[in-house]
Design a protein that fits this description.
The protein is mostly beta strands and 496 residues long. Among the domains are: 19-158, Immunoglobulin-like (Sandwich), CATH 2.60.40; 295-400, Immunoglobulin-like, CATH 2.60.40; 403-495, Immunoglobulin-like (Sandwich), CATH 2.60.40. It contains one helix and 40 strands. The strands form seven sheets. Strands 22, 23, 24, 25, 26, 27, 28, 29, 30 and 31 form a ten-stranded antiparallel β-sheet that branches. A hairpin with a 3-residue loop joins strand 2 and strand 3 (71-85). The longest helix is centred in the first third of the chain and has 10 residues, at 5-14. The chain is elongated. The N and C termini lie far apart (97 Å).
């Protein structure tokens, strides 16, 4: 097909804008003048006002959906887009060679999905059918619209609040940084000023949600026959936003690194154009405030349904001081066979850490506000939390094993061999560890993880970290029971 000079200029103008999500179109999708009797859009699926010709700004393009391991997969017959809709009635129409060849309608219902943790949980599901009734839209707004031919359903999810989220933001991965603004049929803009962005990663998402789950059974994974889970977030780069897992986390680099976005204070502006989609502008306005770090402000504790106190109270860790150049917190925690946990400070959710943490002693970097950590299994575990850069990065390790006895008066009869205590589990918020064996009148202590970084001594009724050596009044067989209520350790020594 040959194009006139005017048509070629139109193509150049179309491609002269920002390269953003939804802006890349095949030649067949470029709007051209069809002449008399045709529809002024390219081939594809559109959401059109009932009785009106479809507009190029309401196209639904082929998209990927979620797959295992936070990847994406193609899905046959799945289309999506961001479309501004005015209240009224609509139909899905398929255009081929500038003619409507299929008209789809359907019956709408409201559904609820509270998985985002925010208030924007209601969306419209349309059970679609060729020639079905017109689809009603009740409110003006910008919508995330998807159409899935395998399940014969269309989703309309109104976009309320764009936001930034990630370890680079002040709220970490646990809470969104909203971008206030609005949209209408001509476009949208959402901005925030004075955002402190530290070295780390971030993404853009909508309504506090990464995705919307339309799987039949989430336990059956991402097999196409089980439905689908579509994205409501962008990654990639600010200049080239990509949908969901097609776009990697965007990066904020260290100060002076020469990266495109260095740590600092930023003005963020997210724009939406009906034809070109979304673009993000991050304008660095100054240096980030100097971090002033006081370890006394960080009373770390472990909390979760895998712990003795559930989600109601913390199991405090012990601040040891600076070890090998890093502020260090230590603790022994008994976990249940099932459940999850997190680390937080000062008995508050204002500052909490999560992510992935294995029980093999390997170091893991935890995320501010990160995901709940799965229990490593029933038993006692020795945890360490460290930061070598005053709270910018938090590292953790976890190993199986907890408290032990050591010393000349202990069953090992020396200071070079530990006798592990048994982890007895927990009841009513109290964790206990015990051992029955032969003791002498010599000195001994409790220590954690087979090392001296965290050890207990002093008085059995009120043990203290780095306390004085312990002893028993007479040699004999004793059951030693160490108890922890989440804040204070105590012990008993019962003759047998």
């Amino acid at each position: 097909m040959r194009r006139t000079l005017i048509e070629k200029l139109g193509v150049l103008l179309l491609f002269g804008g920002l390269l953003v999500l939804g802006s890349c179109k095949e030649d067949d999708d470029i709007v051209i003048d069809p002449g008399e009797g045709g529809i002024n859009v390219g081939n594809g699926w559109y959401l059109a006002a009932t009785g009106a010709d479809p507009a190029s700004t309401a196209i639904l393009a082929a998209e990927t959906v979620e797959d295992d391991g936070f990847t994406s997969q193609a899905r046959s017959g799945f289309f999506g887009g961001y479309i501004y809709l005015s209240a009224g009635s609509y139909n899905l129409v398929q255009v081929t060679d500038r003619e409507v060849v299929t008209t789809v309608g359907g019956t709408a219902s409201e559904e609820m999905d509270s998985g985002s943790g925010c208030d924007y949980n209601t969306y419209t599901v349309v059970t679609t059918a060729e020639g079905g009734p017109a689809i009603s839209v009740g409110a003006n707004g910008l919508y995330r619209v998807t159409y899935d031919q395998m399940t014969n359903e269309m989703i309309m999810y109104q976009i309320e609040t764009p936001s930034l989220i990630g370890s680079a933001t002040e709220n970490g991965w646990g809470a969104d940084t909203p971008l206030p603004g609005s949209a209408d049929a001509s476009g949208g803009s959402w901005t925030a000023s004075g955002l402190v962005m530290r070295q780390g990663e971030f993404k853009v998402r909508f309504n506090c949600r990464w995705n919307l789950d339309r799987r039949v059974d989430p336990n059956l994974g991402f097999d196409p026959a089980n439905g689908y889970q579509f994205f409501t977030n962008f990654g990639g780069t600010p200049e080239n936003l990509l949908t969901g897992n097609d776009g990697a986390n965007m990066q904020i680099s260290a100060p002076g690194s020469g990266g495109p976005l260095e740590e600092g204070t930023f003005d963020a502006e997210l724009n939406w154009d009906p034809r070109n989609g979304f673009s993000l502008t991050m304008t660095r306005t100054g240096d980030a405030p100097v971090v002033t770090f006081d370890p006394n402000d960080f009373q770390f504790g472990v909390i979760g349904d895998a712990t003795a106190n559930g989600w109601d109270a913390d199991r405090n860790l012990y601040y040891k001081g600076v070890i090998n150049g890093a502020h260090t917190w230590l603790g022994v925690v008994t976990f249940a066979e099932t459940g999850e946990f997190k680390l937080r400070t000062n008995d508050s959710w204002d500052y909490n850490l999560g992510g992935a943490l294995a029980a093999d002693g390997s170091a893991a970097t935890l995320d501010l506000g990160g995901a709940n950590i799965a229990t490593p299994g029933a038993g006692a575990y020795y945890l360490t939390i460290t930061t070598a850069d005053e709270g910018i990065t938090w590292n953790a390790t976890m190993v199986s094993g907890g408290w032990s006895l050591i010393g000349e008066g202990s069953p090992s009869m020396g200071w070079d061999m530990d006798t592990p205590l048994n982890a007895d589990g927990f009841d009513a918020g109290v964790t206990t560890y015990s051992y029955t064996g032969d003791f002498t009148e010599g000195d001994w202590k409790f220590r954690a993880g087979g090392a001296w970084d965290y050890n207990l001594g002093g008085d059995l009724t009120g043990l203290s970290a780095d306390g004085a050596n312990l002893s028993l009044p007479a040699a004999g067989t004793y059951t030693i029971t160490l108890s922890y209520d989440g804040q204070t350790y105590s012990a008993t020594a019962d003759p047998q």
